[in-house]
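INFO batch 0412 | record 1 of 1 | parsing
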Amino acid sequence: HFWDWACGTDAPYLDYLAVLGVVLGTDHVRKNFYLSYQPGVDGNKRWEFYPWDMDMTFGCKWDEKTKMNLCDVLSDKSGYQAGVIKPGMSVKYPTGSGDFFNVLIDNVFKDPALHGKVKARVCAIVKSKEFTTRMPMLIDALESQLLADVATDPLDRNKGSKAFKAAVSQLRAWVVGRAVKLGFDLDC
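INFO prediction complete | emitting tokens
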């Protein structure tokens, strides 16, 4: 049942992988999601997927030594296939190398038909009006809503409004760079 739900006609799991591939949500590979087999409103059971803790997006990395999220410089350079088992990677946890894998993700990307569907979804996202026009509008709206609070919050990582505005500008540039990179890599 799960494979049909995840990768069948509607394929919500493929959509999920495509979205996280676009926004470089790397923390979903080994944790930060739940799967649950629940009865639907019609009484039939179905798989439900619950992502959570999405702070590792936009190319942010986790530093195992400092136990900190490193988002000082956003990176749009990584591919969209986080979680695949790389050649020579030890298929055990912990990996010891800092690279993480997910067997379900790896199986999806090893299947040429499913991999093609994820690639098509990634291309559709980066070419969509939602990503190219509405995402920058959302960033602008969030900036205007958060600016006053960030400027007065002594615990915020951005020390004052100038630093916050610079970080927001970096995010805007990241969106453009990500669309260009994926469009080029996938020949969208």
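INFO post-check: The mean pLDDT is 82.
INFO record closed
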